UniProtKB/TrEMBL annotation:
Domain of life: Eukaryota
Protein name: Ribonuclease T2-like
Region called Disordered, residue ranges: 256-293
One function term, GO molecular function aspect: RNA binding
Keyword terms: Cytoplasm, Disulfide bond, Glycoprotein, Hydrolase, Lyase, Nuclease, Signal, Vacuole
Domain RNase T2-like C-terminal: 291-401
Signal peptide: 1-17
Biological role stated in the UniProt entry: Rnase which modulates cell survival under stress conditions. Released from the vacuole to the cytoplasm during stress to promote tRNA and rRNA cleavage and to activate separately a downstream pathway that promotes cell death. Involved in cell size, vacuolar morphology and growth at high temperatures and high salt concentration.
Pfam families linked: Ribonuclease_T2, RNaseT2L_C
A GO CC term attached to the entry: extracellular region
Amino acid sequence: MLAATLALGALAGSAIATPSLTSPVDAMNLFSKRISSGCSTSGSASCHNTTKQTDLCCFESPGGLLLQTQFWDTDPSTGPSNSWTIHGLWPDNCDGTFTENCDSSRDYTDIADLLTNQGASDTLSYMKEFWVDINGQNEQFWEHEWSTHGTCYSTLKTSCLPSGSAKGAEAVAFFQTVVKLFKTLPTYEWLADAGITPDSSKTYTLTTLTNALKSASGVTPALNCDGSSLNAIEWYFNLKGSVIDGDFVAIDAPSKGSCGSSGIKYPPKSGGTSTTTSGGSSPTGGSGSLPSKGTIHASTTGGLLTGGTWSVQTLATYTFSGTSSSFTMSTSKGNCGVSSGQLTCGSGVSATKFSAVTSGSNLLLAVSGSTSFSSDATPSGTTQETVFTGTSHSKSYTLQIVSS
Ligand SMILES: *[C@@H]1O[C@H](CO)[C@@H](O)[C@H](O)[C@H]1NC(C)=O
């Protein structure tokens, strides 16, 4: 059953298969502000202990079968047209039964404030884009996910926290962990890499879909359908250590989901019609039209300077020419282009064709249909970070075009 160890953060966007349990990187140190559990991650994975575990702050029990659930919502469409969105992280018991609503004294309200006040505004901005409610009630959705599922984790009990932790620190850690784990599970990209992109005129067999996801991730997820349309996925894990900063061990889904074996539709999200290209979908701009000049803001903090680097300094003015489905852009330094996955603007740079994807009221920059960008670190002060396409560097974000 143990298929792969997922060291959070270290493997974002890349294949997660490793043949056996490896010694994981302490990737949680990448967070600017996070509490630490002090738990070892070298013991048994949850649901795999052979003796009774006594320290349930460092061993998740009874809910040791963890599901990272994602939505593909098309009616109405929710979230970016080229990404699945977060539903939650649920603790099932090892036999697949589960409990919910475990501690009403910790049913926190105002999750957004809690995250902001405890130094997790980067997590919050990511959630606003990728952990979105189908009816726009994000705050209620986050509160529900915490109170229904989050309060059931043994490793997130208040008594497990470092002394002096702020009220709600375990909920902040929960949201940070879910976001970090979700970034390692790019379902859209994994399907697109196998040539499977949303298309209202195609159907797939369950085997085609699960094989594509298994070859990218190393494990088989459970796929759920609404009628014959794909609309949710469950990625399964056991856990070594604490939900706060433990290692998620990817495993095969214990049973298949609700999709039938064939005739499965993968409908496009509206507000960005998808055209199939070899590199994935290239959604057109929908309602948001491309300005002729603007700045480019990162979803977490700061934005782009004249050379195409990421910084928190004053943002550069970008000039856009073309339409939202295909355009070039430049700064005072010169044309902008992507070469070897790296964005630069300067003289002698050959211009890349970019596209823009509408996400809510935002217009997101895309390369080959993907709106994911990442860097090795979050900039501060006068530092500048190289911008890479995709999610393979530790800090992932999207880039929003803002008209000036
Ligand atoms: C594993 O540890 C949990 C928590 O102490 C316990 O309930 C369970 O019985 C243990 N499993 C085995 C096989 O000892």
